[in-house]
Specification:
Largest sheet: 4 strands, antiparallel
Helix content: 25-40%
Number of strands: 7
Order of helices and strands: EHHHEEEHEHEE
Distance between the termini: 31 Å
Number of helices: 5
């Protein structure tokens, strides 16, 4: 498959809809089989756009990959959080890294990861246990399971923590 060139940059306030589109589209592409159909009643592009507007207006440093003028991927780190009674084991958490499937394999995901966690920085992330693509990508980048597990009751998703 031939990919269009992409570049990474810091998201601006006017990128909320593009970030929301990538976030929601990636979730549909990845989690449609894992989430109940009712999830998509409230997980709309409009709701995601509002959420991304709040994040960008709140000063979140979001990195995007774009091809042409279209955002194709997003990445974000935050201070690591406690989840399901599991205290953080790293200071930093990769809280978001999504690339729409048409650009899987293009290098955009790697470029985003390298932009937000340069030099293989120590970090943690939570990933759906039944997301083999994300787990393989994370493993290639030095992330390994540390045994912490969490069930998101709202989504009925089993998550595991990966660290490096």
């Amino acid at each position: 498959m031939s990919y269009q060139p992409f570049r990474t940059r810091t998201a601006g306030l006017d990128d909320a809809r593009g970030c929301a589109y990538v976030h929601r589209t990636s979730w549909i592409e990845t989690y449609s089989e894992l989430l109940p159909a009712s999830h998509w009643d409230s997980d709309t592009l409009e709701q995601r756009t509002l959420s991304w507007q709040r994040s960008l207006n709140g000063g979140k440093a979001v990195t995007v990959a774009e091809s042409g003028r279209r955002i194709i991927g997003i990445a974000l780190t935050n201070p690591a959080r406690e989840l399901g009674g599991h205290h953080p084991v790293r200071a930093l958490e990769l809280s978001c890294l999504y690339v729409i499937s048409a650009h899987h394999g293009s290098g955009a995901g790697q470029a985003l990861l390298d932009a937000v966690l340069p030099d293989a920085s120590p970090a943690q992330l939570w990933v759906a246990e039944h997301n083999p693509r994300a787990r393989r990508f994370s493993a290639r980048n030095g992330f390994t399971p540390d045994g912490a597990r969490f069930t998101d009751e709202n989504l009925a998703l089993e998550e595991i923590r990966l660290v490096r």
